[in-house]
Amino acid sequence: MLKDVSFGQYYPVRSFVHSLDPRLKILFLIGYIVAIFLAQELLALGICAAVLLFAILLARIPLGKVLRAVKGVLFLVLFTAAVNIFFHGGDKVYWDGPALLWEWKIFRVTQAGIMLSVFLVLRLFLLVIGSSLLTYTTTPVSLTDGIESLLTPLKWVRFPVHELALIMSIALRFIPILMDETERIMNAQKARGASLDSGGPAKRVKAIVPVLIPLLLSAFRRADELGDAMDARCYSGGKNRTKYKKLRFSWRDLLAFALLAALIAGIVVMYIFPVFPL
């Protein structure tokens, strides 16, 4: 189950999206998130979904692998859908039939609630999958260089840009490592007769304790080893630090930027002049 956690993992393959400048990919993700939140109707979200599907096809990543990213927020998605379906009121009619479909005490199922639930669930899906696509197509080193380059103006106020970018990169890199470590510890506990998947919620929480302690010890050990490795390589922060590989924009980045500009422009127009508002 933990192996299905895809956030923070890199999928090595040669593709159009992988070859893009990491700075452009970060800006594209930010602009894409803005477009998702500006979308106020299903048609606009459908356009965002089409752009994301096009990016996944260009990245040559299996669609099933990308969709695994939703598993981590599946509970949040189901909870959001349930709250909006059973507690959202509204008299707007979207198809033939009464606006109120079912009612029992404080629970009300309306057409408006169903439409809003579908809209919010789709928005969450696009947010999670779009964010995962960035880590799938960008190595931690490239991601660090991109973040550091974008935050360069903060160096004027003596902000530790390089250190911040390095911390974020290490955090992303440690996600799949800790997931693998957790899986290994759980398998070792099961081999010793531990029951981690049976019983009620209280029993399952109590069974997690034997997993958390060795996991924390392993995390601290890995952090200590990483610090020793950085000291052995004479790492001293971002001051007077040079780069072997310099970031440069190419024609691919220009095409991606044009696609992002067209997407945001279209969503803004639909935000001002909605076609099928909720």
How would the blueprint of this fold be written?
Elements: H1 22-38, H2 42-59, H3 63-67, H4 74-87, E1 100-104, E2 107-110, H5 111-137, H6 140-150, H7 161-191, H8 201-232, H9 251-272
Antiparallel strand pairs: 1-2
Helix pairs in contact: 1-5, 1-6, 1-9, 2-5, 2-9, 4-5, 6-7, 7-8
Fold and architecture overview:
64% of the residues lie in helices and 3% in strands. The protein has a domain at 2-138 and 248-272. The two termini are 37 Å apart. α1 packs antiparallel against α5 (111-137), α1 (22-38) runs parallel beside α9 (251-272) and α7 crosses α8 (201-232). Strands 1-2 form a two-stranded antiparallel ribbon. It has 9 helices and 2 strands. It is mostly helical. The relative contact order is 0.17. It is flat, with a radius of gyration of 23 Å.
Characteristics of this structure?
two-stranded antiparallel ribbon; 278 residues; 3% strand; single chain; 64% helix
Strand order of the largest sheet: 1-2
The number of distinct helices, counting runs of at least 4 residues, comes to 9
Secondary-structure-derived class: mainly alpha
Average pLDDT number: 84
- Give the amount of beta strand, in percent: under 5%
Report the uncertain regions: none
The total beta strand count reads 2
What string, H for helix and E for strand, traces the elements in order? HHHHEEHHHHH
Rg, nearest Å: 23 Å
Most strands sheet? 2 strands, antiparallel
Estimate percent helicity: 55-70%
Q: State the separation between the terminal residues, measured CA to CA.
A: 37 Å
Q: What would the principal axes of the Cα set say about the shape?
A: flat
